Amino acid sequence: MSKKAVHFGAGNIGRGFIGLLEHEAGYEVVFADVSAALIDALNAQPSYRVHEVGESGHDHTVTGYRGINSAEHEDDLVHEIATADVVTTAVGPTILRFVAPVINRGIESRDPSAAPLAVMACENAINATDVLVGEMKKAAGDWQTIASRAVFANTAVDRIVPAQDPNAGLDVAVEPFFEWAVEQPPFGDEVPDLPGATFVPSLAPYIERKLFTVNTGHATAAYAGFAAGHHSIAESLADPAVADLVKRVQAETSTLLSRRHGLDPDDLARYREKILNRFAEPALPDTVERVGRQPLRKLSGPERFIGPAAALAEAGLPVDALVEAVGKALQFDVPEDPQSVELQKLLADLEPGEFVTQVTGLGSDHPLFGALTAVVADRQANL
């Protein structure tokens, strides 16, 4: 019996990570995207290549897929969801609210006797599937019916997919390493057939280990590299000052991970070393501007800097490196990135304390507030 996965987001991550793993698990992959040019290219080309860079990389050929323009052919997409086994997303956390209504329609159209649809949001955010479910509930007319015909599971995803060669077409360059952890309890004993995914009893350690080591470290390298005038992440990490800050930041977040989840410090040290080697891979031409984009989201309360720094400060533990990294983020001034433009406007318009509260959500009574206010004031003095 054939299997089908509907994947929202036919961009580089969708094609080079989740879509690839679904293809290799034997699913027919239906890519849904609002980009007419991208969907037309997918439907015109019977295959594309995923190239793993570096000495340990391999090439993969993806076939047996289709594309649907979700802006123009919603009814067709509803039918595909109604008859799918798996629905996944890689659209960005802020776009989940736009895909929620059509997922609702697809599940409502599902045969009640069919196996529940597995729904997993594969985004760079904590508990993104919960976010998707929240948006689906807002848009739902009959949530009980939808909830009875689907299973929702949070995931943690990790694979570096850098900016691509503009002449590559549908082909995607990625790093060889990947991790797709999915919480098992929502599925019980009936987990989806996805050999590329790891089903785990509790996702929290995986989510935070990835977010506070990979994402925090990557963003630190981007912001410190940008501030130092570097172009790529690899070039930034060749700068001893940038590399030192990234290492100190990751050492602080590892302290939190060890305390919160009982993760072994030696295992975390090896994990950090692996992550730094991934970032420094010269065959991954990732730019500081791409990695650093959307700085306001990355400086928000639960995210990669403030999340761990706030928890460490509440425990009375050092946060000097994380605060220094926040200071580097405040220097991210890229006119092409709307959040960067807004960040610089807020720095120009608000008092330091007002800025901290509005951007991070922390009040003046929080133990991290003073350090953040000082670093904001320092940035404002140099505008």
TrEMBL record:
Entry keyword annotation includes Oxidoreductase: yes
A single Gene Ontology CC term: cytosol
EC number: 1.1.1.17
A single BP term in Gene Ontology: mannitol catabolic process
Top-level EC class: oxidoreductase
Domain Mannitol dehydrogenase C-terminal intervals: 203-343
Sequence positions that bind NAD(+): A5, V6, H7, F8, G9, A10, G11, N12, I13, G14, R15, G16
Alphabetical UniProt keywords: NAD, Oxidoreductase
Catalysed conversion reaction: D-mannitol 1-phosphate + NAD(+) = beta-D-fructose 6-phosphate + NADH + H(+)
UniProt keyword NAD, yes or no: yes
A GO molecular-function descriptor: mannitol-1-phosphate 5-dehydrogenase activity
Residues of the Mannitol dehydrogenase N-terminal domain: 4-194
Stated family: Belongs to the mannitol dehydrogenase family.
PANTHER family: ALTRONATE OXIDOREDUCTASE-RELATED, MANNITOL-1-PHOSPHATE 5-DEHYDROGENASE
NCBIfam families: PRK02318.2-5
Protein name, as recorded: Mannitol-1-phosphate 5-dehydrogenase
Gene expressing this chain: mtlD
